[in-house]
Automatic annotation (TrEMBL):
Protein name: PadR family transcriptional regulator
Organism: Streptomyces alfalfae
Occurrences of domain Transcription regulator PadR N-terminal (ranges): 7-80
Residue ranges annotated for the Transcription regulator PadR C-terminal domain, each copy included: 92-178
InterPro entries from the UniProt entry: Tscrpt_reg_PadR_C, Tscrpt_reg_PadR_N, WH-like_DNA-bd_sf, WH_DNA-bd_sf
């Protein structure tokens, strides 16, 4: 997937400025497709020159005008073609898993701190995902039935939540194993 496709999806969900788009990447779509502000602005410029997106100037009070982007017909066509293309399942490259296997040839206890650090990072990510879910997806009885776009956003977020929970369970298993091996030494 190219960053262009993630931007097209985000702009179809809601048109916005480059800044607003970058904020969305930080809050939601970026959980699954990371991009820096510079990358986003560079790609927006290219997409505009390719005719995939339109930009209109929006006047602001006490600030410079901003550009608000929306998806043009050519961008919708490009996204449709990409959506129709088959994709291969991702191959997993997991450096920590290789280190864990390699600990058999070193000191397993030395890896405990790194696994704990990794676990903290995944705990923080899960906390952000759950907070985003509470913020963006209130219970159906409170908010009413969501539209298809919101349902699909939520199912992607639920996948991220499930992945983080699975990763934390695995890391707990790794830590228990490393502690057991360290106590034997």
């Amino acid at each position: 997937m190219a960053l262009e496709h993630a931007i097209l999806v985000s702009l179809l969900e809601q048109p916005g400025s480059g800044y607003e788009l970058a904020r969305r990447f930080e809050r939601s779509i970026g959980y699954f497709w990371a991009a820096t502000h510079q990358q986003i602005y560079r790609v927006l410029k290219r997409m505009e020159s390719d005719g995939w997106i339109d930009a209109r100037a929006v006047a602001q009070q006490a600030r410079p005008d901003k550009k608000e982007y929306s998806v043009a017909a050519a961008g919708r066509d490009a996204l449709s073609r990409w959506l129709d293309e088959p994709i291969e399942p991702e191959s997993v490259r997991h450096e920590l898993a290789v280190k864990i296997r390699g600990a058999a040839f070193g000191d397993p206890a030395a890896l405990i701190r790194e696994v704990e650090r990794y676990r903290e990072a995944h705990t923080e990510r899960l906390t952000r995902y759950l907070a985003g879910e509470r913020r963006d997806f209130p219970p159906v009885e409170t908010a009413g039935a969501p539209d298809a776009g919101r349902e699909l956003q939520h199912v992607v977020l639920r996948g991220g939540i499930a992945y983080e929970r699975m990763t934390l369970a695995w890391l707990d298993d790794v830590l228990a194993t490393l502690h057991r091996l360290a106590s034997r030494a």
